[in-house]
Design brief:
Length: 315
């Protein structure tokens, strides 16, 4: 009986590991990616419903119509399928939600030209990752922007997906990934999206509140723990985003870096709080941030596996 429970409990780590390996080996699907199709559908909805000054109600309606059918489908599949079929569908669903390898590819594409002194190329590549005016960034600014992106997107595209899958299975990870995608598309404080994108932005904040703080703790445990915890405690509340603040403050502290500060955007320079403490970022900081995310993923896998084995033995 104990052996059977242990085997069943090990299915979840095996599922997580399978999805992570698929992402590591294949990355995001090059063709027919579900999120690409979803994004095109979201653009069509937004263009049709977001007219004039925009409406919170229309944005909430678009969010509901776009997300709910896919969450219900994921729920039905989770109830109808079992055995190997359910395992495969869950692995594929989690793989499609992850963006671990893609994040690493984009980050390394910036780090390499910084290290080689090719600032123009680094500026071109960082524009794919952040919304800043890349042309006004020097090498340090490019490194800082990329490092911040790795820390924040690691939380959104890797850890939050793992969290919601662990908490609510396939429906949970589908809900989180689709809402997060809409927030990335509509969650801007511009005249066009300020009202229409509010529902997506607020729901994304709610869904990421717990994962963000678990990620901040993970970064602290995998880096300079005391510095990370101190920076999280003292600096996170000053950041504009309630979830990015803890993640990036703890991440910067864990790496012994100073991030944040004033940054150029297309609307002008924006004053931002300083995050972390220590050395200014460089090309190596980007690689160190990627290693921090990798160590965090391994820590989560180990924690889940050990927890489930212990629970299985105790039961």
């Amino acid at each position: 009986m104990i052996s059977l429970l242990t085997d069943l409990n090990l299915m979840l780590p095996a599922l997580l590991l399978s999805a992570l390996l698929l992402d590591a080996l294949l990355g995001e699907p090059r063709r027919w990616h579900p999120l690409v199709g979803f994004g095109r559908l979201a653009v069509a909805f937004e263009q049709r419903l977001n007219r004039g000054p925009g409406s919170i109600r229309h944005g909430a309606l678009a969010l509901l119509v776009l997300v709910l059918p896919w969450v219900l489908l994921a729920f039905l599949l989770s109830r109808v399928l079992d055995g190997a079929a359910l395992f495969v569908v869950q692995v594929l669903g989690l793989w499609w939600a992850l963006g671990w390898r893609s994040l690493g590819e984009h980050a390394r594409a910036v780090a390499a030209p910084i290290a080689g002194g090719e600032l123009a190329l680094a500026q071109e590549k960082v524009a794919w990752l952040v919304s800043r005016d890349a042309a006004q960034l020097d090498a340090r600014g490019v490194a800082a922007a990329t490092t911040e992106s790795v820390l924040e997107n690691g939380a959104d595209a890797v850890f939050a997906s793992l969290f919601w899958f662990l908490l609510a299975g396939l429906p949970g990870v589908v809900l989180h990934r689709l809402v997060n995608t809409l927030d990335a598309m509509w969650g801007y404080r511009t005249p066009r999206y300020l009202r229409f994108g509010r529902a997506a932005a607020r729901l994304d904040d709610v869904l990421n509140w717990v994962p963000a703080r678990l990620v901040a703790l993970t970064y602290a445990l995998c880096g300079k723990r005391r510095t990370a915890l101190r920076c999280w405690r003292q600096q996170a509340s000053h950041w504009e985003s309630p979830n990015a603040g803890p993640v990036m403050a703890a991440g910067a502290g864990a790496l012994g870096l100073q991030l944040g500060g004033d940054a150029p955007y297309h609307g002008g320079w924006k004053t931002r709080p300083v995050l972390g403490e220590g050395a200014p970022p460089d090309a190596d900081s980007i690689y160190r941030a990627l290693r921090l995310v990798r160590r965090g993923v391994l820590l989560w896998l180990l924690t889940v596996t050990v927890t489930l084995v212990v629970v299985g033995v105790l039961l």
